[in-house]
Amino acid sequence: MSVIHVETGRDVYGGALQVLHLAQGLQQRGVDSVVMVPKGSEVAAAARKRWLRVEEFPYRGEADARSLARLAWRFSRPDVHLVHLHRGLGADRLGAMAATMVRVPVVLTRRVANPDVPWIVGAKYGLVRRIVAISAAVRDVLVEQGVPAGKIALVHDAVDVSDWRDPCDRAARNGEFTLEPDVPAGAMVAQFRSRKGHWVLIDALAILRRRGLKPNVVLFGAGPLRSNVAALAEVAGVADQIRFAGFRGDLHRWLGSFDFCVLPALLEGLGVSALQAGAAGVPVVGARAGGLPEVIENGATGVLCPPGDAGALATAIAGFVEDRDAARAMGERARARVESLFSVGAMVEGNLDVYREVVRGRG
Fold first, then answer.
1. What is the 8-class DSSP label of residue 182?
2. Quick count: other Cβ atoms within 10 Å of Cβ 87?
3. What is the pLDDT of residues 247-259, one digit of tens each?
């Protein structure tokens, strides 16, 4: 079997990282995989480091007729059995159109839990054979919008626990991020976008400060609202507790050295950063939003709070800070849960089952 994966994201995090895990796992199982990415993408370099086949193409968005023609030409080769579309940004519709033009079956992975504009639903999903939902929350949104349940396969995203087992020690962490040695420190791994809920964290830190607790939090990630978050932290009087670390390709070296992780997202497809924290043995306080309750077992591997509730988030962080033994025990249970339920092997096999069904149907 030969599969083309189309991933239009340029940075190696979230969905793009899942594509690399998937393509590598498929190669190990004898499935020929080609990763198609826009020219100059960081994903291309990361894929080549894993010895994956990479093809770069000019991509200017879904209105680019030349991209449509290029994709259709590439998909038309006789050795292509299936096209798997990953990132959105128009590539889902453009890729589905191109594959349909040359009669190649399409699988689409859906990673977000927010609903589509109603008039798009039929056009977007009518051209694909199967939709892979990365969480039950994503699946439920699709069904609510009228997508037939039988067209959707639930395959959770995954993390390789072995990548996260050997973090740097806390002294190295403190030096790297200029943290005080005796002050509890948490991490938040998320793009600076409104749905990730950075403002909820800032409000929670202000509440904790009034209670006499001043934990530090390192913010990993990039995005358009970084300066807004920095300004909000200044206004809230907690800027001295925040560190901006940017996007880090070596996150696996640092995450396990933190006392807790925070993910107060208002919308979340599943929460890869919550999986990464669990793999690193770090408890997560997250919002009860999207697929996060599928990752975090409330009270056992972390704490779930109502979305947007800064007071509840502050209370949960205080619990981690004030009872570090309990927090460490939660982290160990989180690692066991991730290893058991969210392995790369299970994710690869789940997608491969979908491919087999689609290719059989084509035959």
1. T
2. 23
3. 998 999 999 999 9
